[in-house]
Amino acid sequence: MSKIWKVYLSGEIHSDWREQIEQGVKDSNLPVELSGPVCIHEDSDRCGVAILGDEEKAFWMDHKGANLNAIRTRTLISEADLVVVRFGEKYKQWNAAFDAGFAAALGKPYITLHPEEHDHALKEVDAAAAAMARAPKQVVQALAYIIRGEMP
To answer: What pTM does this model have?
Structure first.
């Protein structure tokens, strides 16, 4: 039986980069199981109060949600063979930087995915990464190479 690679897709939730990677993995017939955070922004923000009860202060609402989301994130990153961390153009993804650091602390290889204009801001994150990509297609090509030794 072939190894099924577990790849966690971290970061930006406002574009279709995850779907592009998922389609590329499918089209390439790669033995990859993808996972990631809850990508419905409101659900991710409000899960704590929806499940554990309302809070008067936004800080405590965010705290409850962050703690529930962290259980998912930490578990899936811990189980992953590889983490892909996407930093998008529009928003600062502090959580993505945290995920990259968590992966690095666990000794998990990770690939960063971001536009050139973020190079300076992410220099330390990129320095610890196994690779840095500009497009989801490059991530799929990297997976094909890592898993099967296939060149594009």
So the answer is: 0.95
